[in-house]
Design goal:
The longest helix has 14 residues. This protein is an alpha+beta fold. The N and C termini lie far apart (35 Å). The strands form two sheets. It has a four-stranded mixed beta sheet with strand order 5-4-3-6, with helices on both faces. The chain contains nine helices and six strands.
Length: 230
């Protein structure tokens, strides 16, 4: 079982280490480059733990990305569970809170609009285990807008595997650096994802999906509310 000690550190089994790593990579959206982030997520979905145990903390160091104490605890849980060095985790810079996004998202209806890739995602969603809804928004970029796919998933789903599968679907459609955010119901709130969700459009949602209570904290609740009422 995953547990948290009084010092803010986490201990994790192999599966929980993967979930901890997924949560860290989720938090890095808008903070690490898209090309690096999709590759790290692809490695996680393929179980490339030996590569990730040093590649992820080194990426944070190289790009001078700071982490909160909770993010560091999750990073440590994954790195140590996979036999990586604690010194790399300790060397990562600290921030008190996740930064506000510098990205600009296009308001619904003002972007490029629906295309064949959206239709592929809409077709895949209802036959993919664990997916309860899927949305898409566009982020300002160069040379053109960047597609951001937001997937709401059940708590019991393999979030890392889902991210990898949707990324590969987008790569097959010609997107070099796919941006796929798989949001579980208990994920910590992140300013980047709140902004993306607020500017997103529904591609598909389960008619049987439950909408979380508005009083429930966390990104998962916000994602459920936005996805459920798109």
């Amino acid at each position: 079982m995953e547990s948290r000690t009084g010092t803010g550190s986490w201990t994790a089994s192999s599966n929980e280490a993967e979930r901890a790593c997924h949560d860290v990579l989720l938090a890095m959206a808008g903070r690490l480059p898209d090309r690096l982030l999709w590759r790290l997520r692809d490695w996680l979905s393929c179980g490339a733990h030996v590569a990730l145990r040093t590649a992820l903390p080194r990426a944070l160091l190289r790009h001078r990305v700071g982490v909160t104490e909770d993010e560091r605890a999750r990073l440590r849980a994954a790195v140590l569970a996979w036999g990586g060095p604690a010194r790399l985790v300790d060397a990562v810079l600290h921030v008190d809170a996740a930064p506000e996004p510098v990205a600009t998202f296009t308001e619904p209806g003002a972007g490029p609009g629906w295309d064949d890739t959206d239709l592929v995602l809409r077709a895949l969603a209802p036959v993919t285990a664990g997916v309860t809804a899927i949305r898409r928004t566009w982020r300002a970029g160069s040379p053109g807008p960047v597609r951001i796919v937001l997937v709401a998933a059940d708590a019991g789903a393999d979030h890392a595997a889902l991210a990898g599968a949707v990324q590969r679907a987008l790569r097959a459609r010609g997107e070099a650096d796919p941006c796929v955010e798989v949001l579980g119901p208990t994920a910590a709130a992140a300013p980047y994802h709140r902004a993306a969700l607020a500017a997103s459009e529904v591609l598909w949602r389960s008619s049987e999906g439950r909408v979380p209570s508005p009083t429930r904290a966390g990104l998962g609740a916000q994602a459920g509310e936005l996805v459920g009422h798109g």
